[in-house]
Write a structure and sequence with these properties.
mainly alpha, Fusion Protein Consisting Of Minor Coat Protein, Glycine Rich Linker, Tola, And A His Tag, Chain: A, Domain 2, three-stranded antiparallel beta sheet, 7 helices
């Protein structure tokens, strides 16, 4: 059995060529221009997108202004040559003069009153243990009065540390019984004990009362009770220290 012949396609010859990155085939003039335009456009887009590098600005040196220089010069001149400040002479009016005079007169009167008061207090404080001005014992003779006082002062001890001051004086009023015991004792200036700054006075007053209590009963005269039942004693440490 005979086979029919097979129709084959025509044979095409293929030449092998080497492929490289760049073609050696010359471009057509139009194609080259198109490619160059595309490259230029790409460069332009890239340059527009990238921000330009910021340049550091140089700070100019500060130039002093003329006014500032003048002010500095004035300050330096003032420090070197300070101006003398002259005292202001003010004339007082007639009303002010009268007011000053009245103030001075009032101050002088106050000072005078203080001096008189100090003199009175000093005279009162000059009363001593041997004073004969005792209004409660005017009927007693000097010897009987001194005898009673001497007994109490013999029991009194001057506290240590007291200042040597003539104004430090304690006056005590006594009421005696017929047997010589103390019925009543009273400090005449007892308010002074509670005043501020009278610490030494309080110490002296307490020591005087203690001496009165220790010495009782006193040796009293057998007669004349109405004359010696009331007695005032003046405790003055300055007199005791003088002897």
């Amino acid at each position: 059995m005979m086979r029919q012949p097979i129709d084959l396609p025509p044979i095409i010859s293929v030449e092998l060529i080497q492929i490289s990155d760049k073609t050696n085939i010359p471009f057509a003039p139009k194609a080259r221009k198109v490619i160059e335009k595309v490259k230029e456009e790409e460069k332009r887009i890239v340059s527009e997108q990238a921000p330009p590098a910021a340049k550091a600005k140089e700070k100019p040196d500060r130039i002093p202004m003329p006014k500032e220089n003048d002010k500095k010069k004035e300050l330096i001149e003032k420090k070197q040559n300070p101006k003398e400040v002259k005292p202001e002479i003010r004339q007082s009016s007639e009303f002010e003069k009268k007011e000053i005079v009245n103030t001075n007169e009032i101050a002088a009167l106050i000072d005078k009153a203080k001096e008189e008061q100090a003199k009175i207090e000093k005279d009162e404080n000059k009363l001593t243990q041997s004073s004969t001005k005792d209004s409660f014992a005017k009927g007693l003779s000097l010897s009987e009065e001194d005898a009673l006082r001497a007994q109490i002062f013999g029991c009194w001890s001057v506290p240590l540390g007291l200042p040597y001051d003539d104004n430090l004086l304690v006056r005590i009023k006594l009421r005696l019984k017929q047997d010589g015991t103390i019925m009543k004792s009273e400090i005449l200036d007892h308010e002074r004990m509670n005043r501020p700054g009278q610490k030494f006075y309080k110490i002296l007053a307490e020591s005087a009362l203690r001496a009165v209590r220790i010495c009782q009963p006193l040796k009293v005269p057998p007669t004349g009770y109405e004359k010696w039942k009331d007695l005032q004693l003046n405790f003055n440490p300055t007199e005791m220290l003088r002897g």
